[in-house]
Amino acid sequence: MKYLALFVFTMVSIEFSFSQLQVPQPSPSSTLKQIVGLTEVTIQYYRPSIRDRTIFGDLVPYDKVWRTGANQNTTITFGDDVVFGGTEVPKGTYAIYTIPNQAKWKVILYNKTDNWGLPNSWDDRLVVAEVDAQLSQLGISLETFTIGINELRNSGGALFMAWDNIVATVPIQVPTTDKAMSSIKQTLDGTPSGNDYYQAASYYLQEELDLEKALVWLDTAIKENADRYWYHRPRSLILAELGRYQEAIEAAKSSLKFAQDAGNTDYVRLNQKSIDAWSAKLKN
User: Fold this and answer.
1) What's the chain's average pLDDT?
2) Whole-model pTM?
3) Rounded to an integer, what distance in angstroms lies between the CA atom of residue 190 and that of residue 277?
4) For residues 149-173, b (16+ Cβ closer than 10 Å) or e, as one string?
5) Which strands sit side by side in the sheet containing 82-84, from one edge to the other?
6) Three-class DSSP category at 34
């Protein structure tokens, strides 16, 4: 009985020691979380490398569905409904497949993500989007397959997939305006702080919305916190957009003074540059 117990203990120990083995994966996993406007986009994928191989047209055949990475499905998760390459896509998680070609790529979002690589049986009913990607040549050979989101702006961005000397890009539009306007209304209808008014006004300035309304919000914010130079800065920019350059200069001078008091040289430089530009306009 003693030897049986020892045998069981030894086998368990061996099994446990095997489970602790750690070696690097040939295609390591990667997770990207990116906020696009107000929408979170998450991409999970495995990153193969070239390793002296010919990639497109060989390792990755042309005109055939590619898993777009290695190992498990490459997936993308949208936190809101989006427009992907011109196609409306509900929020959720999708597998990304591509069909590379020398002239163009097709990018497919597939509503089943538990495949290892390609599905055993392709189901067209699970295709949520099938769009053409814009192809560009890289000036270098990128060793490791990379997916990301760039060209970020409030209303969207661009999904890119790059490997070797090729990058494929698909635009993504997100519902930032609807979410932002709803949040602004809800917050300002409640008990808003000076910072709430400042953020709402800054968004209106960025999106070139009702600047007169934004100016009123900034005036309200400044009444509560007159020494916040970052409040005076957008106020000066709005006044300049409205063609009220003398008032814009005075607002910029206020921002500059409070920035000097706080030791913020960046704001001092920005305001002085604006003051010089607007002063020149008044002279012409």
Assistant:
1) 93
2) 0.84
3) 39
4) beeeeeebbbbbbbbbebbbbbbbb
5) 29-36, 39-46, 75-78, 92-99, 105-110, 127-153, 156-173, 82-84, 87-89
6) strand
